[in-house]
UniProtKB/TrEMBL annotation, chain A:
Alphabetical list of InterPro entries matching this protein: Bact_solute-bd_prot1, SBP
Protein source organism: Paenibacillus donghaensis
Presence of keyword Nucleotidyltransferase: no
Top-level taxon of the source organism: Bacteria
One family name in Pfam for this protein: SBP_bac_1
Signal peptide: 1-22
The protein, known as: Arabinose-binding protein
Keywords: Cell membrane, Lipoprotein, Membrane, Palmitate, Signal
Automatic annotation (TrEMBL), chain B:
Topology in membrane: Multi-pass membrane protein
Keyword DNA-binding attached: no
Protein name: Arabinose transporter permease
Residue ranges crossing the lipid bilayer per the database entry: 23-45, 86-107, 119-139, 167-189, 221-241, 272-295
Family note: Belongs to the binding-protein-dependent transport system permease family.
SUPFAM superfamilies for this protein: MetI-like
Protein source organism: Paenibacillus donghaensis
GO BP annotations, alphabetical order: transmembrane transport
Taxonomic lineage: Bacteria, Bacillati, Bacillota, Bacilli, Bacillales
């Protein structure tokens, strides 16, 4: 008996060690190149080690996108030039997406180790709004600018009328048409005003070329969400209540499923628009269009090189004449954590980088995003040659200006991460891959989320 | 004289104290005990406490058994089913196959056995993350993906490997086999080398064939190592996370076909920031694994007194 007990205890120990060892493998991996964690915790004042400026204040910044890091570094350099009295020493680090958000959660939860300034992706943001937000209110810097920016891009990062983050971009959803294929099928993209027109054009495409007009995501949210957002609907409402199975949402899904059944639409290979398989598929001209947010442009320039000069950007079809022709989708906010030593100084820098005209111009020039400050959209700088204008032509912002007032806000609430997963993971595959009845699927998902 | 003797006596006592057979073992195991206490026991106890709490930034409150009641849901059911199915199937894959391969590799007549040994072991050195990405491409749904190309050779049309429960599980098993068979071969090889050759010689003289020798000598004498491999395979199966995480590119798998219990902990704890609920799942997983292992060890006679 005693031996059995000893064996069981020993086994328990082995299991604990084995499980914790393996379980931690994927999610707590810390990259060795990650000193800011400890720096942020001890908050060493950069003053003593600073060779020239003497008073430069150290600001630790975490992001999960390399390009964002470069953007902030360049903004810090130009800030130091124009504000030598308030110089900062930016210590920026790029950490993989999941790791960074996990580390940030743990750092904020435990009260030590968080950076001063941090990028938080939209679908992760609600996690940071739980309980007492551990981020600094940005109201005093944002309120004077609310008239110049797309307001919904800060509202999604708010709780109880307090703003906690500023987005890089609007994420306006647009149609990317393969002009060459449209020409082959004799379709003029400017004649496509509504989704009904789109279906007609799609049938023509299928008849003439045998190829689908459009692709939808098979386990992602980017095909359905913009379409319901266009119609003023959403997956959760302002109060955070789940609204997955409202009639508009069901009707939209039924229409899209019909397009798939007709062959007008195909489910994207790899089931999403951001997969290696999909890039190859589009590159070989297998489908004539896709609608995705503005930030998807760099997938074309970087991963679908053969379509250079063949893709044009147009507004989405409306659901009825005069209806919205776009939707603001996706995004990443920059926030200041409550562990920042001098939040007021950091706010000034953040406003310079994200709210100023100069900063917004740089967001387009360096990152290829549609900046949240709409008055820069008509700036001549938007037509200057860069890899995006070379690929899509110089009329990108003309399209954006025409849909400026047709971008309805989305609701991101505490329940959102769970709702997004249920949509991506259950609803969309069942509807587009298993071809189940949308009304029933959405009703079931709605029920499971209550 | 007297003082000198006393000094020597004291020095001897001090020496004896440091060298005492009673204390020395504790000193040697101290590093392990300390790291165990800090990195395993403390987090375990803490997870136990957290599983009864609602943990929010700046607001922690006790919620009693709510999290454990919350476990009664479809997602946990799917995770439990997937993990158990994966564990069971890996047992069938990762015990007999490496055992037979090890016997071959151990045979004197086997050609190029060193080459095969290293070839089979190399996958174990590859990072699961890299392997996961490669396997995701191998199991792609387009006609050009490796697995589909192979199917075409037999006239079978392309499959959407990662969208159906059974094909997805198949992909996970192929990945598990590719990665772990080499390691298990190593365990079996080391055990095989301790079986005395005379036993086989004697059996051969008595007219026992190859199969009979394998079933009557090799398999029974490998029992201790087999039990060990079964035990680590069981908790390896239940602890599986990275493979499915990488195979579905870090996104939730369609209809949860690749959701494992550890994946569920990760989803709830870190993706939805329900640390309390995540802890409850973790504690439950510990209980399940313990139960399965005790059951298996009891059935295999590990706890029986050796006569």
């Amino acid at each position: 008996m005693k031996k059995a007990f000893l064996c069981t205890t020993a086994l328990l120990l082995i299991l604990v060690m084995g499980l914790s060892g393996c379980g931690g493998n994927g999610n707590t991996e810390t990259s060795p190149s990650n000193p800011p964690a400890s720096n942020g915790g001890t908050k060493a004042e950069g003053g003593e080690t600073e060779p020239a400026g003497g008073e430069a204040q150290k600001v630790v910044f975490w992001t999960f996108v390399d390009a964002h890091q470069k953007f902030y570094e360049s903004m810090a350099a130009s800030w130091n030039e124009s504000h030598p009295d308030k110089a900062i020493e930016l210590e920026a680090t790029t950490i993989p997406y999941d790791d960074m958000h996990t580390k940030l959660l743990v750092a904020l939860q435990s009260g030590v180790g968080a950076p001063d300034l941090v990028d938080i992706e939209q679908s992760k943001f609600p996690n940071f709004m739980k309980g007492t937000p551990q981020l600094v209110s940005l109201n005093d810097m944002l309120e004077p600018e609310l008239g110049n920016i797309v307001k919904s891009r800060v509202e999604i990062y708010s709780k109880d009328n307090t703003y906690y983050g500023i987005d890089y971009h609007v994420g306006a959803t647009v149609m990317y048409y393969n002009k060459e294929m449209l020409d082959q099928a004799g379709i003029n993209p400017d004649d496509i005003k509504t989704w009904a027109d789109f279906e007609t054009a799609g049938k023509q495409m299928l008849e003439k070329t045998g190829k689908p007009m459009i692709t939808f995501e098979g386990n992602g949210n980017w095909s359905w969400w913009p379409a319901i957002s266009q119609q003023g609907s959403d997956q959760v409402d302002t109060d955070g209540k789940v609204t997955v199975d409202t009639p508009v949402n069901v009707k939209t899904m039924e229409f899209f499923q019909k397009l798939v059944k007709e062959g007008v639409a195909a489910v994207a290979p790899g089931a999403g628009h951001d997969t290696e398989e999909y890039f190859g598929y589009m590159d070989s001209g297998s489908a004539a269009s896709v609608f995705m947010p503005f930030w998807f442009m760099n997938r074309f320039t970087d991963h679908i090189p053969d379509l250079k000069g063949k893709v044009i950007i147009r507004p989405m079809p409306a659901w009825e004449e005069g209806g919205n022709r776009s939707a603001g989708m996706g995004g990443t906010a920059t926030s200041i954590t409550n562990q920042a030593k001098n939040p007021e100084d950091i706010k000034e820098f953040l406003a310079y980088a994200k709210l100023s005209k100069e900063g917004n111009l740089q967001i387009w020039k360096q990152l290829g995003f549609d900046p949240i400050r709409t008055d820069v959209w008509s700036d001549p700088a938007m037509k200057e040659s860069n890899k995006f204008t070379d690929y899509f032509g110089t009329d990108i912002f003309d399209t954006l200006i025409s849909i400026k007032d047709e971008i309805a806000p989305v609701h991101i609430r505490e329940k959102s991460p769970e709702v997004f997963d249920a949509i991506r993971n259950k609803a969309i595959p069942e509807i587009f891959i298993d071809m189940k009845e949308p009304a029933k699927v959405l009703k079931d998902v709605q029920a499971s989320l209550k | 004289m007297q003082i000198e003797r006393e000094l020597r006596h004291n020095a001897k006592r001090g020496y004896r104290l440091g060298n005492s057979q009673k204390i020395a073992p504790y000193v040697f195991v101290l590093p392990f005990l300390l790291s165990f206490a800090v990195f395993f026991a403390y987090p375990l106890v803490n997870a136990g406490v957290m599983s009864f709490q609602e943990v929010l930034p700046g607001e922690v409150s006790f919620v009693g058994l709510d999290h454990y009641r919350g476990l009664w849901n479809e997602d946990f059911g799917a995770a439990l089913y997937n993990s158990s199915r994966y564990t069971l199937l890996t047992l069938f894959l990762l015990i007999p196959v490496p055992m037979v391969l090890a016997v071959f590799l151990n045979a004197k007549t086997m050609m190029f056995s060193n080459f095969f040994r290293s070839a089979l072991f190399i996958p174990a050195l590859t990072s699961v993350v890299v392997a996961g990405v490669v396997f995701r491409l191998i199991f792609g749904e387009l006609d050009g993906a490796l697995m589909n190309t192979i199917l075409h050779l037999f006239g079978i049309p392309s499959q959407r490997w990662l969208y159906s429960s059974s094909l997805g599980m198949f992909a996970l098993l192929v990945l598990a086999g590719w990665r772990w068979i080499g390691i298990n071969i190593l365990y079996f090889l080391s055990a095989l080398q301790s079986i005395p050759r005379e036993l086989y010689e004697a059996a051969e003289m008595d007219g026992a064939g190859t199969m009979r020798r394998f079933m009557r000598i090799t398999v029974p004498l490998l029992k201790p190592i087999t039990i060990y491999v079964v035990t680590i395979t069981i908790y390896g199966g239940y602890a599986m996370f990275t493979e499915s995480y990488m195979l579905w590119a870090g996104k939730p798998s369609p209809q949860n076909i690749g959701l494992t219990i550890v994946g569920y902990i990760y989803q709830q704890g870190f993706q939805y920031f329900n640390l309390g609920f995540g802890s409850a799942i973790g504690i439950t997983l510990l209980g399940i694994t313990l139960l399965v292992s005790v059951l298996q060890l009891t059935l295999s006679g590990m706890f029986k007194r050796e006569d």
